[in-house]
Amino acid sequence: MATARNSRMQRTLNDLTIRKVRIDDIPDVYKLLTANRPYVGLNSRYTYYLLARDFSDTCIVALDRYRLVAFSSGYVPPSRPDTFFNWEIVVDEKYRGNGLQKKLLLEQLRITRAEYFEGTVNPSNHVSEKNYLAIAEMLGAKCSKSVLFSEEDFDGDGHEAEVLFRIGPISLASIENIVSP
Questions:
Q1: What CATH number is associated with residue 74?
Q2: What are the tens digits of pLDDT across the range 110-121?
Q3: How far apart, in whole angstroms, are the C-alpha atoms of residue 154 and residue 159?
Q4: CA angle 81-87-88, nearest 5°?
Q5: Which of 22, 45, 85, 163 has an alpha carbon 20 to 30 Å from 54's alpha carbon atom?
Q6: Residues 6+ positions from 179 with CB-CB distance below 8 Å
Q7: Strand extents, DSSP E, 76-177
Q8: Which residue segment(s) compose the domain that 35 sits in?
Q9: How many independent structural domains does the chain possess?
Q10: Tens-digit pLDDT profile for residues 144-175
């Protein structure tokens, strides 16, 4: 049964529209984030409006017809213009397990033309860790891990450590071979 579901969903994923986020997407982005807690963190709506306004070139959404089913935010740090940093990604529960997270991240790498990918993962988030390692393998790039912020950095508020994954160098040709514009 799971195989039939995954096959059916995979056909649907091929028909998704992936585009840059817009300010008018934020109510649906926020609903998606809220509906998928604790799978993903939740920041203020204001944060997401700012992302849509100031980082729309690097933040994207996936739509199944008119329904927003995924959101991925990130930016190019001013001090590291060769790097794309993925800040947050959420995929609707019904669309998980079919490669959508990887597809979004690869699209962001294509858009930014970054030589390096960075993102943080909590130690309990095995899915994102697996996806980051798979992306490194797909791109034929090295992947290093280091603690960016420890649990102690969060003053004992229950926040897990943030482990930084750094992938690269990445060739534009390897991204173009995987992602079609």
A1: 3.40.630.30
A2: 999 999 999 999
A3: 6
A4: 150
A5: 163
A6: 103, 106, 107, 109, 110
A7: 83-91, 116-121, 142-149, 162-168
A8: 2-178
A9: 1
A10: 999 999 999 998 788 899 999 999 999 988 98
* Whole-angstrom distance, CA of residue 140 vs CA of residue 168: 8
Q: In the structure, what pLDDT confidence band is assigned to residue 100 with cuts at 50, 70 and 90?
A: very high
Rounded Cα distance, 8 and 47, in Å:
35
Joined tokens for residue 42: 């939740």
CA distances for 88 relative to 105, 128, 168, angstroms:
10, 11, 20
Please answer whether residues 162 and 148 qualify as being in contact, where contact means their C-beta atoms are separated by less than 8 angstroms.
yes
pLDDT value of residue 36: 85
Strand partners, 88: 73
Alpha-carbon gap, residue 112 to 115, rounded angstroms: 9
